[in-house]
Amino acid sequence: MAHETVAEEMSTERDVLFSAKGLEVAFPDMAAKPVFGRAPMVRILNGIDLEITRGSVLGIVGGSGSGKSTLGRALLRLVEPTAGTILFDGQDITHLNEDALRPIRRQMQMIFQDPMSSLNPRRRVGAIIADPMQMHGFDSISMRVDEALDHVGLPRSFRSRYPHELSGGQRQRVGIARAIALKPEFILADEIVSGLDVSSQAQVLNVLANLVKDLGLTLAFISHDLSVIRRLCDRVMVLQRGDIVEYGEANAVFAAPQAAYTRELLDAIPLPDPQQAGW
Amino acid sequence: MSAFLTVHNLSAVLHGFDQRVLRSVSFSIDTGEVLGLVGESGAGKSMIGKAILGILPSAISIIEGEILLDGQDLQKMKPADRRRLIGATAALIPQDPLTALNPSRRIEPQITNRLVDILGWIKSDARVRAMELLNEVHIDNPERVMASYPHELSGGMRQRVLIASAFAANPKLVIADEPTTALDVTVQKQILRLIRELQARHSTAMVFVTHDLGVVSKVCQRLSVLYGGKIIENSSVPDFFQGPKHAYSRALLAATPKYTDPDASLLPVDEAVIEAVAAEVLAADKEWRHGA
Ligand SMILES: Nc1ncnc2c1ncn2[C@@H]1O[C@H](COP(=O)(O)OP(=O)(O)OP(=O)(O)O)[C@@H](O)[C@H]1O
Ligand SMILES: Nc1ncnc2c1ncn2[C@@H]1O[C@H](COP(=O)(O)OP(=O)(O)OP(=O)(O)O)[C@@H](O)[C@H]1O
Ligand SMILES: [Mg+2]
Ligand SMILES: [Mg+2]
User: Fold this and answer.
1) Which residue is closest in CA terms to ligand 1's atom 29?
2) Assuming Cys at both sites, which of A166, A196, A260, B99 could form a disulfide with A170, CB separation 3.0 to 4.6 Å?
3) Which residues in chain A have Cβ-Cβ distances shorter than 8 Å to B266?
4) Interchain contact A194–B (C-beta under 8 A)
């Protein structure tokens, strides 16, 4: 009996994969920099608290420049927070240096908003997907590359192409293939389907949904597309100028948005109808 | 009304392959008109824009057809004259904002250079104009943005910088390649209104590449649906949203996500419909080879 309770407690504790408390990020404001001395800092995130349960999907929405990508980069420690703490799988990673981060880097992957900038222009698609697997000591890499290409709906012959020989949506899918091939615990997907047509969107989202369901992947999903968020996410967070203005179960938020800003977002969605009111 | 841009029977091939990437593409756009270009990833939307602007990748060449810009046949012009005409009349809002911006230069010269180099403005005027434009695209702090490097801006801010610089010199033709994909819906709405307004004020002709039929219904008067580099339907916007003619277009419209109905969202386009349209494209290829 007692044994069970302990196990249960441990499992609820283990349930949280990512958590952040009072997370702040600031950057120097170069426009306001005096000729001598340091630039003043502008704060981008104003103390974010969040918890992401293992195997769940968190949607992050908010205005352009509200801090979504910065939040993602801070969680994955691609930037160092100026205040607060981040726990990944129970470990405090807030100020770990790159050496200490290396072993957990594979477990947390980010798929970036601008696909071209994250793909090495001098490497072919096959190598772009294989390189990180090589670095992390995977076996049967060639087979895994094919599998990853299949998953995102790209022909295997694309292995020999360079990034500049692809369309925008095809590049985006290479970035997705590279991340999922590593079978990470956690993926942060930054605006990865906004440039894709509906068929490719459906395909990529189904792949991600299946990884969540079958492999227990945990996903944070930044998107402007509220239909996508509603379809895919368990919980949703709405950011406005570096603050959380709404955070809750996705269904509840969509059914009855509490924040005025969330309602504004829902009202601004363009429906495929030339007569839509308000335009 | 006379067409400002006419693309007639345009075909392009990738070197070393005999398959065409653009297949006898024809459409025209009047001054002041916005044409939507829709179709799945890899259909050739960006390629059409690049062909018009004369910036196709070196591995791809035009094998037939004409592009008439303001009455001039681009293929027949000397390259230098063509570049000058395109530089003075047309502007591109590129699909990938980060690569379109020079990473090691601040934003200010990247907007003002066009005005200074092509239109001969003096620097201080160009700076004022750039600030105005950044204001118009709802950038809160234009001073800071002008002094920033591209990586210091958010995705949506970079995209708006490129929209601003495309309209800076009052172009007569704008090719907008997925210009609002990085914008949240509220900013998108403001920007779409602004584009409509700028475009109406200056009678700009526009090619608007997007996969979002909701966006098409707001800014375009006509649209072309592309599959495998071939236009399979040309339609006016009101007609299209009443009911598209082609089965593939109908399937695309049906697959458009609706946040009000999450279960009906993000279903892939019906396989059978895709097979049918692919077969149609191949059949047209056979006929084309015969004709040639
Ligand atoms: N390296 C940096 N240096 C200075 N400022 C930065 C840096 N990175 C981001 N910022 C600023 O932080 C703010 C938030 O940017 P972020 O990229 O997080 O926004 P976002 O919510 O992802 O927006 P979008 O939807 O447009 O991509 C912006 O004002 C941006 O200019
Ligand atoms: N330099 C190149 N060499 C070979 N093939 C290329 C090259 N550039 C593009 N392609 C191919 O040409 C086709 C059309 O590309 P294009 O960029 O026009 O697509 P698109 O319709 O804009 O798609 P997306 O919506 O994904 O941007 C694609 O299949 C692409 O892989
Ligand atoms: Mg962003
Ligand atoms: Mg494209």
Assistant:
1) A65
2) A166
3) 198, 201-202, 205-206, 227-228, 231
4) yes
Spatial CA neighbour of B148 closest among B122, B109, B196, B204: B109
Centroid of ligand 4 to alpha carbon of A196 (angstroms): 9
Taking residues A141-167, report their average pLDDT: 94
Interface membership of B266 toward A (CB under 8 Å): yes
Residues of B with Cβ-Cβ distance to A271 under 8 angstroms: 214, 217, 258
Residues in B closer than 8 angstroms to A196, CB to CB, are 41, 211
- Rounded average pLDDT over A158-178: 92
- Pocket flag, ligand 2, residue B260 (CB < 6 Å): no
The answer to whether A242 and A60 have CB atoms below 8 angstroms apart is no
In this prediction, residue A230 carries a pLDDT of: 87
d(CA A233, CA A249): 9
Q: Domain residues of chain B, as ranges?
A: 5-291
Q: Is A169 on the interface with B (CB under 8 A)?
A: yes
CA B154 to ligand 3 center in whole angstroms: 5
Residue A8 pLDDT:
46
Q: How many CB pairs under 8 A join A and B?
A: 182
- Per residue of chain B (292 residues), give pLDDT as tens: 579 999 999 999 998 887 899 999 999 999 999 999 999 889 999 999 999 999 999 999 999 999 999 999 999 999 999 999 998 899 999 988 888 899 999 999 999 988 888 778 999 999 999 999 999 898 989 999 999 999 999 999 999 999 999 998 889 999 999 999 888 899 999 999 989 988 888 899 999 999 899 999 999 999 999 999 999 999 999 999 999 999 999 998 888 877 777 666 667 788 899 999 999 999 998 888 887 6
Of how many residues is chain A composed?
279
Q: Three-state SS string across chain A, please? A: CHHHHHHHHHHHHHCEEEEEEEEEEEEECHHHCCCCCCCCEEEEEEEEEEEEECCCEEEEEECCCCCHHHHHHHHCCCCCCCEEEEEECCEECCCCCHHHHHHHHCCEEEECCCHHHHCCCCCCHHHHHHHHHHHCCCCCHHHHHHHHHHHCCCCHHHHHCCHHHCCHHHHHHHHHHHHHHCCCCEEEEECCCCCCCHHHHHHHHHHHHHHHHHHCCEEEEECCCHHHHHHHCCEEEEEECCEEEEEEEHHHHHHCCCCHHHHHHHHCCCCCCCCCCCC
For residue A204, the model assigns a pLDDT of 84
Chain A neighbors of B217, CB-CB under 8 A: 270-274, 276
What does the pLDDT read at residue A30? Answer: 74
A28 ligand 2 Cβ < 6 A: no
Cβ–ligand 1 distance for A67 under 6 Å, the answer yes
CATH H superfamily, domain B5-291 = P-loop containing nucleotide triphosphate hydrolases (3.40.50.300)
ipTM of the complex: 0.86
| Pocket lining: B44 vs ligand 2, CB cutoff 6 Å | yes
Between the CA of A162 and the centroid of ligand 3 the distance, in Å, is 25
